[in-house]
# Entry
Amino acid sequence: MSPPPADSDDVWLHCSACRRDLRFGQIHWVCSVSTCNRNRMRLVFCSVACWDSHVADARHRDAWAVEAQAPSRDAWRAEQATEASAARRRRAPPAAAPRAVITAPSPPPSSPAGRPAASSPPRPPRPPAPRSPTASTARS
# Structure
């Protein structure tokens, strides 16, 4: 939200359409559509005609002008102070809690082939079992 212009102490904001000054405590109009009434993009209008020009650009389906009164200078300063402190809280990093580092046990050493190392050398492969002559004659 932008602060009041520095050139005049009694100017609150400017009309969003024609840029005329809106003074503290002055009657103004706002749009009834909720997306037009956000704090970050506050749309305020000095007249219903200025609001109507906004409706043509925004393509609202169902909208109307709502009469409102600008805050007093003190209320505006209090609102800005509240928003500034809330913004500082949002930007402040959270306090870091001490963290414990837990390490996993190391895996057993492995051999170059990717298998775990054995305590004894590997055995040689077994020779194939001999074929019996009776097994081949029994089939026929």
Observations:
- The longest strand covers residues 27-31.
